[in-house]
Amino acid sequence: MNKTDKRNQFADQIEAYRSDPDLLDLSGDVAFMRALRDQVTATITDPGTMDPTTVRMLSELCDGIGKLVSRYDAITNKTALTIPQFNQLQRELITFILTLSTDDRERCLSTLRSTFILGSGVPAALPEVTDEQ
Questions:
Q1: Three-state DSSP state, 98
Q2: DSSP alpha helices (H): ranges in 43-117?
Q3: What are the sequence ranges of the domains in the chain?
Q4: CA of 37: how far to CAs of 32, 33, 42, 67, in Å?
Q5: What confidence category does residue 129 fall into, taking pLDDT thresholds of 50, 70 and 90?
């Protein structure tokens, strides 16, 4: 197969994936990564003499499998938030927090910061809100 044929085949594969009606199905990717991991580990005869590069690659591969499985689980269980959904949630939470009394607001912000719901997006200080507002 010449270079042009390989490029065309590759382009066809990309288009097939782009037009996949179940684009969020990552099970094939997980299966591939696990099979690759198994192929590499099958070649190891003495773990004590493994090349540090191979150890690092296997570690990263296993970490990647775990992250991909986690993403797949979030997608299939509909528990993942999109970036726009998260940003909207963050805006609405901050808007709500601003309506609270000063003590309640500080307690709420402290809880949110400690559970990283708003992460670094929580302003260091919000405008003062009096109980009369």
A1: helix
A2: 52-76, 83-98, 102-114
A3: 3-76, 83-121
A4: 9, 6, 9, 15
A5: very low
